[in-house]
Amino acid sequence: MKPEASTSNDEPAFADAFPFAERKFREFIEEFKQYGLEVHRGLTLKRGTGLLCYYGLKDKNIYLSLPDPKSSIGKLQVLFFRSILGCKNNEELFEFMELLLPRLIAHELGHYFRHKYNTFKNDLWYEEQVANQLATAVTKHRLTPSQKKRVIEFIKNALKNIEKEAPSKLVAVDSYHSPLHALNVSGSLPAKELESVQLMEKLFSISAIDVLKRSGRLETTCLDRLEQRKSVIKQFNKNYTSNTVTYFYYQLEWLLLDLESRENYYVDEFVKTQLQRKIPLLPEVQPASSPKEEHVLACFKAHVETTGLSKTASRYFYKRYRSLLLELLKNSRNHAKKQRVGRSPLNEQAFSILEVWDEKESDDLDFAIQLAPKPLQHLFPKKIGKSLKECVLTEKSLPHATDKRIWRHLMKKKKDEGAKNSINRLSLLDEIDIYRSLPADILLNFAHTMCKAKYRKGETLIWQGSTNDDILILVSGHLEVLVHQREKEKIIGEIRPGEVFGEMSFFTSQPRIATVRATRATECFVLKASDLRLFAMKHPIVLMHMARGLALRLAASAKSQAAESA
């Protein structure tokens, strides 16, 4: 393949590439510091002589090899890259490289951190997927829609040039880290079926590939490709970078899938899952199957004792008290059924309603006491006072390790980072209308699942038209909401700390309807759609509260638009 001759002098552009790369390198290092990732003092981006961008295992530096059009070897390199990438001239090649450079650098930083924190494995295919996840986390949302479109055009054009020399047209797709998203992007797995398979995988700990194989929904050709996935990955590990063109083909196809996939990645997610550096949090609390009266009393007393120390902890203990009391009621109802000594008017639907609580509204326990058996009525809020005076609260009285640690942290002033961090996250969730009234065990689950995301002033969090269903909670900062109409941007709203956004796409699986941008340094918590669907399956009340919050916001938006047009 002979590329067309360059029509302009592109040497200055190539000369500017390395300073641009160094700037991005420093920006990424500063960004990663915010997530607790420090680099060693001497880490440098150096000029290399190898394959475009690579991490030096011996000296632990990152090398970037850029062709120098002034030298004879550089001219050959330029011709090589233009040939395999299908670029018409040096200017087009530089444009492509400039768009890819941030990803290449972030990818190698992924390798660096895996080595630094001793999590690097011998499986080179896996390490490439992990490094790509970090690269996607810091570059995908920073591409404007026009830049993303341009990169995709470049990649597809390059793949057409390379695929003649690649082992198979679908070999890179079949080796993508997520077969679900690869099939979704290729059109073999609709978005709704993708969600269903993800849910099955999380609920029953069954691999997504096994679910797909048994579903009967995929064509024989797709099933055959899934069967061959292990051998494809094995072949990649065997060859790795021995064939430059094939290696480029894999990386470009994986990048295309990353850009077109519905899935987003986050730096904090990489830190927790790939570096095993999780922020200390308290253990999740599983609903008690057979609580005792002393547990109920202990949690209520802890609620009273911590009132002046931590509003969040006090609310936590009151919710724990309610959950334990409701479980006692369920057990008494079941016992009555077995003994055939009467029926409790409290059915499952009633328990679902009683499960939620918000101090801004009346407590339904005040009404439920009339339906409770007499032996349990002294445990209800209006009658618990006498029993509480006789209750001596000690650490052993509390039913769960998490309850004990929160109480000890506040009452005994014992330093506990897990308790401190959990209370902080619960405090945030307490400020959000749609989550405030949920039971303590659900909110603790959320606290574990949420990942942190930080954005600079002027940075875009969500692009209008993008396809992703994650939900975000603004912790600090300020966001503006914009829509693009006739090539112009119009601000239609704002998001303040404590507000949730992104639910519309979660419910509809449709592209984002607006752009969300930071007007100052911003921090969010992210609830990934795949995790949230699992929560909703276990606790349908979560969906009801989310739908209520979305409906209220849509109603307010409609009212505002009506006022403007009046």
- Structural class estimated from helices and strands: alpha+beta
**Number of helical elements:** 26
Number of spatially distinct domains: 3
Mean pLDDT equals 86
Total E-strand runs = 11
Keywords:
566 residues, alpha+beta, Jelly Rolls, 3 domains, four-stranded antiparallel beta sheet, 11 strands, 56% helix, 9% strand, disordered N terminus
Layout of secondary structure:
Blueprint: H1 11-33, E1 45-47, E2 53-55, E3 62-64, H2 72-85, H3 90-116, H4 124-139, H5 145-162, H6 171-174, H7 179-185, H8 191-204, H9 208-215, H10 220-227, H11 229-239, H12 244-260, H13 267-274, H14 293-305, H15 311-339, H16 348-354, H17 365-368, H18 374-377, H19 384-390, H20 401-411, H21 417-430, H22 433-436, H23 440-449, E4 451-455, E5 460-462, E6 471-476, E7 479-485, E8 488-495, E9 500-501, H24 503-508, E10 515-518, E11 522-527, H25 529-538, H26 541-565
Parallel strand pairs: 1-3
Antiparallel strand pairs: 2-3, 4-11, 5-10, 6-9, 6-11, 7-8, 7-10
